[in-house]
Every structure is written in structure tokens, then in C-alpha cells.
Design brief:
hydrolase activity; Amidohydrolase; disordered C terminus; Aminopeptidase; four-stranded antiparallel β-sheet; eight-stranded mixed β-sheet; alpha/beta; elongated; Alpha-Beta Plaits; Bact_exopeptidase_dim_dom; 29% helix; hydrolase; manganese; 16 strands
Length: 400
């Protein structure tokens, strides 16, 4: 993968590497399961992955036998050190595995540094799976988006590459990015960790049939933003609604109106979603509150569609609230850009995937998806590629 821009030698090299380690896979994957369950039991929120970082570093040095000097805090890879606003420490890791120093100098067109990324943070949720012996031990924090698996897999990948680094082209680097804060804070992946990187690859496990790989050229995951709406006006006793400006009734009307944005304001060829996830209002059964708050998410694949949705949302909030004599306030916060796979990198993944799991298990079925991801080519690297590995048979629980 590192020695040429032609994907065929890349597939050959990966196939050769796969053959050399096939006999140890069963035991190796059992060890990865233990790692994954450790993280599942000990989740940490974005920008607070202190114990996770320390555990990963200790494993890489003592189990994967990667020299400590090749493991750095994320943001200290030659660029200006990253300062995190929500933490006094840098909680990501950049790991460089070095190819042989002896050998021919790489051609000018050759890839000399390829990066692979795994995110480490959990979600502010309480896990309720008491039947699992590895259920989260932290109330209000849980790995409900699969990052425990991503971290464990990247640790396993580090072990395999370090053991077989003699297969790498001379003077090449495989860089591993253990990213904190993927869930809404954009982590540290943009802050110097990709300096000198020619290509970068990421993946997400996905709740569909086991052992399949989904990848496609072009848009893969949606642009995402969040919105919050506050409807306010005079409340009062429920026995005298005529002296109030009931924000609950207005909220009900607004919720219905918002559903018309995608069905009536967009072409059926434009994929987009506007979903309300929270509604909060009132504290007593017999009191009409003075405010109601709604919040939700917007997903789309086009700046034009995004603009239409935002404008329609603003219009609906303003005029629906005014019709009830209430004031409406709308706030929209941009989050993830669209994840777009370049042709060459996506085709490399497809070719290697077919050699590993078979051609019938590699497809673009169901893609793109409206889940969001901060692993975006617009802000990271022109040669970013992303893939979904399908690992479960259960419904989607929590995606960013």
C-alpha cells in the first residue's frame, strides 16, 4: 500500500501479509475481544479519555513492543502543540511504525506515510445491558457507538504491523491515530497529526450482517448540524388557558410543520433528514409553562439543501410562534461535513476487501448513510477514505 500509487501492488502486499498471520488469527482475535470489553466496561467521555490513553500507551509499549519514542501525544507531531479547551491534558496518541531504514529511496510518486484512525470516546448515556458481564461500570457514560471496538482494533493492527514491519517499503511510515473527542468536538485529528501523511483511512463498525464491508466512491456519510428552538411567552394556571399564550400548543403545531420541510420543500432526489430528538416543557400537571424547548438534528449531502432546510426552519419557527402570540428563537450549530471518499482510495479498499472476505461480501449497498462523522476530507487530507465494516445483527442504537 505504501510503495506505489498503483492499487494492484497494494492488494498483493496485503494478501502476502494476510497469509503470514492466518495461523494466529483465532487467538489474536480473542485477545482483541478482551481489549474491547475492557474499554466497554471503562468508558470515558470526549476530551476526558485519560485512563484510555494510558491503557493504550502501556499496551503499545509492552505488548505490541513499539518503542516509546514513536508514541506521542496527539498534536505534538511537529506541528504547534494542541491546546484543548476542555482538558488540561492532550488525550490522543499518534503512533509511528517505521519501515526498514535500508533499501532503495522511495520514488517521488511513492506513498511514504499512510495513516489509520480509531476514535476512543464514549457517549453521555447510561448503559442498560445487565446481562452483559462487560456492561459499562460508569453511570452516565457508555460506549454506545462502537468506539471501544475501534480502539481495540487499532491496537491489534498496531501489533500486527509492528511484528511485520519488515514487509513495509524502505523509509516508509504507518501512522496510527488514536483520536479522542470524535463525538461532536472534532477531536485532535486536525491539529498537526496529519502533517506529512499521504493518505489516511478510517472505518466504523455497523449493525448489519457479520463479515461484510461497505465502501463507495463519493459521498458516504452526511453533513450534520443540530438545532434548538425555544418558544416563550406568558404561562399560567391550566384552569385559565385564555390568559396564557400556551407554548406547548405552539410546539405541537411547529413539530408537525417541521415534518413538511423534507416532504414539501425538497426534491425527492435530495436526501435529507430533519429529526426532533428532545421536547421539554413544564414542571407541573396543572400549569401551562412559559417556555418549551425543542432540539434535533439535520442531515444532508449538499450545501444547497442545507441552506433550504435552514431557511425553512427559520421561517416556520418565526411565523408559527407569531401566530400564537409567542416568541420563537432558533439556533443552528454546524457539526460534521460530508464524508467523501476519493476514487482511488475507495477502490483500494474495495480490492483489498474482496481479497480478504470475498467479492460477494464487499458492496456499496445502503450507502450513503445519514449518520455523521468528523473524519472528513474537506478539513483533513485530500486523500481520506472511509469504510463501514458490518459487525452486528442488531438495530442501530447510537450513531453520531
Amino acid at each position: 500500500m505504501l510503495s506505489t500509487l498503483d492499487p494492484t501492488p497494494a492488494a498483493f502486499a496485503l494478501s502476502k501479509l494476510k497469509t503470514t498471520m492466518s495461523e494466529t488469527f483465532d487467538a489474536f482475535f480473542a485477545d482483541l475481544a478482551v481489549l474491547r470489553r475492557h474499554f466497554r466496561q471503562n468508558p470515558e467521555l470526549s476530551l476526558h479519555e485519560f485512563k484510555t490513553q494510558a491503557f493504550v500507551r502501556n499496551y503499545l509499549v509492552h505488548q505490541a513492543h513499539i518503542p516509546a519514542e514513536q508514541i506521542q501525544d496527539c498534536g505534538k507531531t511537529g506541528a504547534s502543540p494542541l491546546i484543548l479547551s476542555r482538558s488540561t491534558r492532550i488525550v490522543g496518541l499518534v503512533v509511528d511504525i517505521l519501515g526498514p531504514t535500508e533499501g532503495p529511496k522511495p520514488a517521488e510518486s511513492a506513498l511514504t506515510c499512510v495513516a489509520f484512525r480509531g476514535d476512543m470516546d464514549a457517549l453521555p448515556m447510561t448503559e442498560k445491558n445487565p446481562h452483559l458481564p462487560y456492561e459499562s461500570q460508569s453511570t452516565g457514560v457508555a460506549h454506545m457507538c462502537g468506539h471501544d471496538g475501534h480502539t481495540a482494533n487499532l491496537m491489534g493492527f498496531a501489533t500486527l504491523v509492528q511484528q511485520r514491519r519488515h514487509f513495509l517499503p524502505p523509509q516508509s511510515i504507518v501512522r496510527l491515530l488514536f483520536q479522542p473527542a470524535e463525538e461532536g468536538y472534532f477531536g485532535t485529528i486536525r491539529h498537526g497529526c496529519l502533517d506529512g501523511v499521504d493518505e489516511v483511512y478510517g472505518y466504523h463498525n455497523w449493525p448489519f450482517p457479520l463479515g461484510n464491508i461497505q465502501v463507495k466512491v463519493g459521498p458516504l456519510m452526511a453533513h450534520g448540524s443540530t438545532f434548538s428552538i425555544t418558544i416563550s411567552g406568558p404561562g399560567g394556571h391550566g384552569s385559565a388557558p385564555h390568559v396564557t399564550k400556551d407554548p406547548i400548543v405552539a410546539a405541537g403545531q411547529l413539530i408537525g410543520a417541521i415534518q413538511t420541510i423534507t416532504s414539501r420543500s425538497l426534491s425527492p432526489h435530495d436526501a435529507a433528514i430533519v429529526s426532533i430528538g428532545q421536547v421539554h416543557g413544564g414542571e407541573a400537571d396543572n400549569v401551562i409553562p412559559s417556555s418549551v424547548k425543542l432540539s434535533g438534528t439535520i442531515r444532508d449531502f449538499s450545501p444547497t439543501v442545507e441552506s433550504t432546510i435552514n431557511q425553512r426552519l427559520e421561517t416556520l419557527v418565526k411565523h408559527t410562534c407569531a401566530a400564537f402570540g409567542l416568541e420563537g428563537k432558533l439556533e443552528i450549530s454546524d457539526m460534521y461535513a460530508v464524508v467523501v471518499n476519493p476514487d482511488r482510495q475507495a477502490n483500494i479498499i474495495r480490492e483489498i476487501g474482496m481479497s480478504v472476505v470475498g467479492a460477494d461480501r464487499v458492496s456499496d449497498n445502503g450507502l450513503p448513510v445519514c449518520a455523521g462523522e468528523d473524519f472528513t476530507s474537506n478539513d483533513l487530507n485530500p486523500h481520506v477514505s472511509y469504510v463501514n465494516l458490518l459487525v452486528e445483527r442488531s438495530p442501530v442504537a447510537e450513531l453520531p
